[in-house]
Amino acid sequence: MMTTLNEWFEKGIPAKDFVASMKVHKESLQSIYDRFSVSEVDQDFFNDLKAKDLRVIIITEDWCGDAMMNIPILLNIAEAANIETHMVLRDQNLELIDQYLTNGTARSIPIFIFIDKNGEEKAVWGPRAPKVQEKVMELRSVLPAKDDESFEAEQKEVFKKMTQAFSEDKQLWNEVYSSIKEVLVKI
């Protein structure tokens, strides 16, 4: 029998408990959360969202750089719109992530599944804002072929640059914010 979205939500870990338990990107996630804030001009948008009584299931893992950047932005949105957030770990819940594959094949995270109080899916966002994807592709464009002996070292360098950009580039944060808002405004 298939698990419902309400059951996945209930199975999830409340956001603050997940953040408290993080081992990999906790400080960076917390730093982004503290330095990012939603726009005051969006107050009407948040009031409209509050009326929709939404909840969100976040499929994630604490080692994920995309999650490190996207989750604190979502948490700021969730606070402004009174959206309850629960985290579901991807690697322990393949049945759920396999329903939300990126490009039909990749178990990319984070994935945000917005549901109403009845557990009906209202919107899905993730794993990246389009402009962030462009930045990642630009950074990866310098990588040699996978069978090249320098690939692994070069890839580590690219990951380091991506993590730094995700941790510090407020323009990327604003791209994530705008992208999530674009999805939520359609609900």
Topology (elements, then pairings):
Elements: H1 5-11, E1 13-14, H2 15-21, H3 26-35, H4 43-51, E2 55-60, H5 65-81, E3 84-89, H6 94-97, E4 111-115, E5 121-125, H7 130-140, H8 151-168, H9 170-184
Parallel strand pairs: 2-3
Antiparallel strand pairs: 1-3, 2-4, 4-5
Helix pairs in contact: 3-5, 5-8, 5-9
What overall form do the CA principal axes indicate?
globular
Distance between the termini: 28 Å
Radius of gyration: 17 Å
Number of strands: 5
Percent of residues in β-strands: 5-15%
What is the count of helical runs? 9
Helix content: 40-55%
Mean pLDDT value: 95
Q: Main sheet?
A: 5 strands, mixed
Main structural class:
alpha+beta
Catalogue the unreliable spans.
Answer: none
- Elements, N to C (H/E): HEHHHEHEHEEHHH
Spatial strand sequence of the major β-sheet: 1-3-2-4-5
Summarize this structure briefly.
It is built from nine helices and five strands. It is an alpha+beta fold and 187 residues long.
Keywords:
9 helices; 187 residues; globular; 13% strand; alpha+beta; 5-stranded mixed sheet
